Amino acid sequence: MNTKHLKARILDLALQGKLVENSKISEKSNFRIPTDFKPPFGIPNSWEWVKLGDLGDIITGSTPPKANKEFYGDDYPFYKPSDLDAGIQVENSADTISKKGFEISRQLPQNSILVTCIGATIGKTGLIHKEGICNQQINAILPNEKFISKFLFFAMTSEFFQNEIKQNASSTTLPILNKSKFSNLYIPLPPLDEQERIVKKIDELFSQIDILETSKQNLLKNIKHTKTRILDLALQGKLVENSRIPNDLNSRIPTDFNPPFEIPNSWEWVKLGDICEISSGGTPSRNEAEFWENGTIPWLKIADIKDDYVNSSSEFITQKGLENSSAKIFKKGTLLFTIFATLGEVAILNIDASTNQAIVGLTPKKDNYITKFIFFALKNIKNSVNLIGRGATQKNINQTILKKLYIPLPPLDEQERIVKKIDELFEILEVIENSL
After folding, report:
1. Which stretches of the chain score pLDDT less than 70?
2. Which end of the chain is more exposed for a tag (fewer CB within 10 A), N or C?
3. Which of 82, 104, 109 is nearest to 93 (CA)?
4. What is the per-residue pLDDT for 50?
5. What are phi and psi of 430, to 5 degrees?
6. What local confidence, expressed as pLDDT, does residue 342 receive?
7. Where are the beta strands (DSSP E) in 142-281?
8. Taking the CB of residue 403, how many other CB atoms lie within 10 A of it?
9. What burial class does residue 325 get, using C-beta atoms within 10 Å of its C-beta: 0-12 exposed, 13-18 middle, 19+ buried?
10. Widest CA span of the chain, in angstroms?
């Protein structure tokens, strides 16, 4: 469920007079459509299209001279675009001014509506609840008896009005909407009693959506926790029925290892280095253009290890770059594992590719080890890997450490059944996740 889209749709309906019952007036009172404006949608006959400038005072902010220290203090907020992130609940600002700075500035009473009028965040809107001032990147509409500030805030955060801002801003690298153009933008305005009812309805619906959003986030956390729990059960032999073998074949626990949990008697604890060929990649010299230009060999970095399967790379190297570095080709199906900075990210190659030295490739030495089972085992020990990672600033482990890591290993037929069950359960969880 896209709650952001749902809120946008509610604002659309509100501005078209379709959210609450309209005020009743006679047809002869229908307001004329301005000659310089083509309405994008119809509005009730009790409403009118009005310019922002006709609603009341609009000011552009300014900055008190910074050389004069007496203008700055903790008496009043000094609003900047970054302070408008709170939207309808702008209470405070990062910077403040003194009473003297407030007195020499363009003053904003509480319930003023502030809109960024320049730069990448053009259109960002906030409703302030404390009087103060704003800088020159902001246009402010001062409150009056013609409108309810909260209604105007909702109108100005609607998709319709945000598009109006962007379309009327200067089409330069740094978009600007000056006070004159801003004042000439139109909005649909209902009678005051209807503004009140619309605001009440929007608040009610948004509150319900916020509850849904909280529930959604909690559900996503639960899904993540459930996946972790599934892997825990799988690696402890509790997800599928165990293979049956006589107790006298119970695998010995290695003398150099203290198992974190018990495993079935048909399983054994094994070192990664004993069951997998492990080697790392490399980086051709960046100073040699011929190692990189027009390269056709996929070359992976940690940033490319984002999903369970790797299907593409953001960079490529040439055959010459491959031959003159420690980079190597890992075949499709190789298990990738990150050992530097971002530790323990794991994925399976869906293409032939090379990697940098922060990624190692693991290939099972025998046919009785399933790559995807080892993949799930490595995902399960990610936290443990991070705990043993060395380095104060950027954690890392080397191949020697990786080869000595233990994982629990069941018989081949049980590996297959475990992988199949994990895939089935994860698929169900991902369907739920994608529907939210």
Report:
1. 1, 23-32, 243-252, 386-395
2. N
3. 82
4. 95
5. -70, -30
6. 81
7. 186-189, 268-271, 276-280
8. 15
9. buried
10. 97
